């Protein structure tokens, strides 16, 4: 991935489009036939089912989806139509809209001012930098790399949450939404979380990005380029043994683009992993009682188990 906006599996896109479930079989970006699988798994995901089942028995709400990028075949589906809070993971929808407006000239080379209305003490770097204005593309880079709360809020104030929603709807995204800005505290009149999602839609969305079908190839490439900088490999991607600060290039035949969402009682991740034999898109969300460190560690351990089996899947040829 030499260029900042290069798409993850660009070398394979032509052959991927000829597979079952490719562009000719569904609307661009995933369409309204995604997320139909409500249960079941390829036999390579037995440990994942057991780990997620253990969380569910302890009272957590779990949802997971893994899809073969080339064929569109579901390899894992656990309540993948269930809509759950995913913290700031919905920023991927914001980045899609920002990329689309950059491509169509709506944003040009705009510089945005850091405003008091955008402040939030959550993730990110802009709040610690001396530079008070930045170009839109640089802010999108911060959002992709560090889930930067100030940058995300500034971009959302600029493009508008209605535009983000309309773009998602045009892509056939019905259960996944960015519903609010990042806030330090959520009052009774605020949304309970920044975004919600269904894992079936998220895995299809990442498949669409990988195939260059989310809006178009240029937009997909921009979004993948920003997300490829993500420094959070603490959940599913923590099992891939990649450098969390530098994993854009192939490393032992692996390349990952992922996005995470974390808040009290929420751990979520979606992404695409390219491997020596195949490529898969995946998503998982767990909402749980975050009363003790042990419960949180159990969730992280289950997501790492899923990551181990996602890793194994891309080392094996796709099954027909």
UniProtKB/TrEMBL annotation:
Per the record, the domain of life is Bacteria
Q: Where is the composition biased (Basic and acidic residues)?
A: 25-43
Q: Which Pfam families match?
A: Beta-lactamase2
* Broad class of enzyme this protein falls into: hydrolase
List the Gene Ontology MF annotations in alphabetical order: beta-lactamase activity
Keywords assigned by UniProt? Hydrolase
Any idea where the Beta-lactamase class A catalytic domain is?
65-286
Give the residue ranges for region: Disordered. 1-43
EC number(s)? 3.5.2.6
Tell me which InterPro entries the record gives.
Beta-lactam/transpept-like, Beta-lactam_cat, Beta-lactam_class-A
Q: What is this protein called?
A: Beta-lactamase class A
Tell me what organism the protein belongs to. Curtobacterium luteum
Source species taxonomy:
Bacteria, Bacillati, Actinomycetota, Actinomycetes, Micrococcales
């Amino acid at each position: 991935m030499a260029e900042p906006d290069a798409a993850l599996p660009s070398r394979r896109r032509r052959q991927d489009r000829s597979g079952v479930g490719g562009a000719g079989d569904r609307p661009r970006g995933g369409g309204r036939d995604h997320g139909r699988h409500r249960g079941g798994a390829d036999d390579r995901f037995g440990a994942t089912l057991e780990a997620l089942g253990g969380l569910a028995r302890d009272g957590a709400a779990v949802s997971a989806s893994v899809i073969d990028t080339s064929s569109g075949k579901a390899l894992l589906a656990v309540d993948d139509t269930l809509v759950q809070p995913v913290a700031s993971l919905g920023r991927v929808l914001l980045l899609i809209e920002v990329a689309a407006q950059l491509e169509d000239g709506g944003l040009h080379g705009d510089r945005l001012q850091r405003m008091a209305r955008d402040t939030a003490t959550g993730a990110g770097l802009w709040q610690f930098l001396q530079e008070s204005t930045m170009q839109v593309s640089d802010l999108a880079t911060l959002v992709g790399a560090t889930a930067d709360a100030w940058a995300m809020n500034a971009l959302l104030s600029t493009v508008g949450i209605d535009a983000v929603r309309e773009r998602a709807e045009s892509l056939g995204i019905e259960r996944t939404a960015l519903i609010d800005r990042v806030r330090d505290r959520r009052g009774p009149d605020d949304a309970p979380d920044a975004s919600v999602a269904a894992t079936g839609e998220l895995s299809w969305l990442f498949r669409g990005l990988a195939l260059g079908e989310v809006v178009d190839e240029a937009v997909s490439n921009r979004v993948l380029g920003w997300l490829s900088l993500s420094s959070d490999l603490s959940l599913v991607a923590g099992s891939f043994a990649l450098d969390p600060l530098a994993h854009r290039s192939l490393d032992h035949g692996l390349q990952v683009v992922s996005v995470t969402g974390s808040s009290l009682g929420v751990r979520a991740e979606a992404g695409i992993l390219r491997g020596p034999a195949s490529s898969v898109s995946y998503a998982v969300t767990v909402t749980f009682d975050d009363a003790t460190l042990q419960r949180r560690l159990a969730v992280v351990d289950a997501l790492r188990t899923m990551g181990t089996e996602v890793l194994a899947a891309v080392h094996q040829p796709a099954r027909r």
